[in-house]
Specification:
By secondary structure, this protein is an alpha+beta fold. It contains 13 helices and 19 strands. The chain has a 6-stranded mixed beta sheet, sandwiched between helices. Helix 1 packs antiparallel against helix 13, helix 2 packs across helix 13 (411-429) and helix 8 (238-259) packs across helix 9 (304-320).
Amino acid sequence: MTSDPREHVEAVMSHADALAEDVVRLTQEFIRQRSPAPKVGEVQVADAQRWLADRLEALGCFDEVECWEVEPGHPNVVAVRRGAGGGPALMFNGHTDVVPVTEEQQRVWTGDPWSAEERDGRIWGRGASDMKGGIAAAISAVRLVDAAGVTLEGDVLLVANIGEEYVRPEIGVESVLERGHRAPLVISMEPTDLAVCPVSVGWFMFRLVLTGRSIHPSARHLVIHPSHMLDGPPGVDAVALMRRFMDAFDGLNRRWGLYYHHPLAPPGLTNIGPISIQGGAPAAAVPEHCEATFVVVVAPGQRSQDIVAEVRRAVDAVCTDDPWLTANPPQLELPVLDPLVYEPTDVGTDDPRVEALLAAGRDALGESLELGCMTAPSDANIISTHGHPVLVCGPGGQAAGVHGANEYVEIENLLAATKLYAALMLRWCGCSSGSADGAR
């Protein structure tokens, strides 16, 4: 018979202090398993995933641990704790792959990026926030429930897939879903400082390639004030042309900031900006080529296809006003990596899933968690596109060195996440009035 989950919260939380050191240790050990997103032809995630699968087996609190590869050397890991039946399943989703540590980051990093050093109440290391700390917290939450001997009615799934940082969902999270690992509530443990995010941004990238006409730099005055020649201007600066498009994109940013809003999103969240620009050559010549890649963030409440259309119209408008661009139109690849357009997600603040997570925060932490917006794309967007509602809520934060130098996770935040996830299991999956036969 189903019992009130609040009856079990105290029993579960009574084990939290005793498990705290294990949570920290598990996070540290996980960070030390180097798993940077591979370059072409390299495999760097396999050992970390196999270590994780072995560790999950050894813990003894999961009924099944599955490890499989869609491509050699790229394994996914799913662990399942079976419920007694009658309750909905709950999935915790994270990715083991992390962004590489660049040479520049290595120079400014205090200590070894892979040491998982504990200092100043934090664990430091690549992947601490994004997102090995979140995965460790979810694993530890299952251990809390197990230690208390509570019988859950619904299944709990722990997913640690690959392919997120190297944009290969087809061998990562999509493979997880295709294998049948699904749940009516998915928690992505991406770093939000434990804000409950029922909405997430979408995004896409595009590439713009411009062709100019080279001429000796000493003749730049003919580029600025071209002579009236039948075959057009004697020189065209492709880099200067790119600036015109960037000015047009800044105009889009201002308009989007005025008119595109969401109550949980910061202002100006829908925006466009360059992430890579190359133009010209070492030779003494006016640049005849310029290529730039841009990323467009799409706030909740907007549709990527509408933003794509606005970008395309802005490019067309610049070309229409320029005879050179009319005769020599730019190459526009919009979007890049099609069809990898990440649509914004929106569960809705009045959804019972949101209330369950907020109630778990009150049960476990005695406080009301903040509602927010996940301001970076992730596997949550992919899962949502496949029809599974996702809430993003994890320890660590975007400002904690994520994708940069000196990444860390606050230990207090990590332990709070462990309690929160355990309380959510009680709330969402349901509890039987009887207890399990001790810890497994």
